[in-house]
Amino acid sequence: MIPFVFKGIIWLAGLLLGDRDGKITGVGIPSVQFIIFCIFGVLAAKQMICIFTRKKIIANIALSLISLLSILFICESITGILLYFKNRKTSLLFWEGTYYTERFVQAYPVLGFRPAASKTVNLALRKGNKYIYNACYTTDSLRRRICPVSQYAYKYAIFFGCSYTFGEGVNNEETLPWLFGKKDTSFRTYNYGFGRYGPHQMLALLETNQLQNEVKGDNGFAVYTFINNHVNRAICDMSTFAWAAEGPCYQNENRHLVYKGSFRNTRPWRYTLFNILSQSNIFNYFSINIPFRLSDKDFEFIAEIILAASKEYSRQFGNDNFFVLLYPGTDMRILPFLQKNGLKVLDYSSLFRPSDAVYHIPDDVHPTAAAYKRIAKKLAVDIKQKM
Amino acid sequence: MWLLKDLWLFMKERKKFWLAPVIIVLLLLGLLIVFGSGSAVAPFIYSLF
């Protein structure tokens, strides 16, 4: 009788507060019913345990477990409702375009994923009915985003990095490699960046591809653009594992970085744990990550990966013109480890404030063309001095 | 600490030891929220595959 009364109350609330779709504040009525039935189930189970189990200790253990599960369930449900309200702003954001319908992103061993070859797609970000951006992405036959080709170019400039290098949210002619190539036409630029990549993908790319066969030019340089989130990706923490788990996992063995496979296959228990915990409303509402904080050891590890990549670059290209560009707003904990490893650093961490509206796309973390223009201008000057 | 001591005495007196795992887990959850809250920086919003 009582569960039916509760069912009636919930239905009435839905009628008054909802749009009769069976949901109140994003929580399905069946879910609420399930919670209530669970509570009654606990009480009924307790009575049955006491009646049918003579040994009190077993009854106590069973009751303890049932109470624990019920409390966790209630906490999860409450935070689920709170999360619904918290996420209402970002739930208005939609990505759409031929980027998805034409499968621009393709699974690939070692790297985890890579862009399609010789493809032109569009990716739009919409907030409600308003478009924030609608960008065109074009790749060449070697899956690099296209860059300008100048008849005066006799040197190469290789750009490694993530979506900041690739240029997510901006058109082909607004990316950092493109703008640098336009600024200094003696360089032929190559964009090896891609969304979600980190230093470990850069190292894997260098180890598995003979880039000197893909790049034209007698002399040149390579630059890797570092942002804070690269540390999270390279260690595959809980905040990034959903899309970083297929990436390459490197481990230190006798002071040498060894590729062990994907994170998913190398650390299956960690992957399973993250898979479970990342679905927890409590973890999502309170933005709890594992590990809680990045340690100096994590930054040191990233610096080792970058060092390995620079050595591989030097081996393939016969020069040591490998630079690490610290994007504005970078966590400076990485700097001492880069310097300790003898890496050449272009410290642009204070060049501008990335939170300024002119330098980042609204409702998105990615830079605008104005940000890339500013960096390309400074990079052109610095490279001339350092090379 | 006095609260925990009180709880322990209550459980001992009333023989409600089955409450112990519940209290421990809730305490751990509280600690997790206090120390771990906000450790996942603003989600790197990427267009999904």
Tell me what the structure shows.
The complex is a heterodimer of chains A (387) and B (49). Chain A has two domains: 2-88, no CATH class; 145-386, Rossmann fold. Chain A has 15 helices and 14 strands. Chain A has helices at 2-17, 29-52, 56-86, 98-101, 163-166, 176-183, 199-208, 229-235, 241-244, 263-266, 268-277, 281-285, 296-317, 334-340, 369-386; strands at 23-24, 27-28, 93-96, 105-108, 112-115, 120-127, 130-138, 155-160, 187-191, 219-226, 248-253, 256-262, 322-326, 344-347. Chain B has a domain at 2-28. The longest helix of chain B has 18 residues, at 19-36. Chains A and B meet through helix 3 of A and helix 2 of B.
Beta strand count of chain A: 14
Helix amount of chain A:
40-55%
- The CATH architecture of the largest domain in chain A comes to 3-Layer(aba) Sandwich
Q: Domain count of chain A, please report it.
A: 2
- Termini separation of chain A comes to 82 Å
Question: How is the biggest beta sheet of chain A arranged?
Answer: 5 strands, parallel
The protein's oligomeric status is: heterodimer
Q: Tell me the name of the CATH class of the largest domain in chain A.
A: Alpha Beta
Query: pLDDT average of chain A, as an integer?
Result: 87
Placed side by side, the strands forming the largest sheet of chain A appear as 9-8-10-13-14
Tell me the Rg of chain A in angstroms: 26 Å
Largest interface: A-B, 40 and 26 residues
The rough form of chain B would be described as elongated
Write down the overall geometry of chain A. elongated
- Would you identify the regions of chain B where 5 or more consecutive residues have pLDDT less than 50? none
End-to-end gap of chain B: 50 Å
Low-confidence parts of chain A, pLDDT < 50 over ≥5 residues? Answer: 18-22
Backbone CA Rg of chain B: 18 Å
Fourth-tier CATH superfamily name of the largest domain in chain A: SGNH hydrolase
Mean pLDDT of chain B: 76
Strand elements of chain B, count? 0
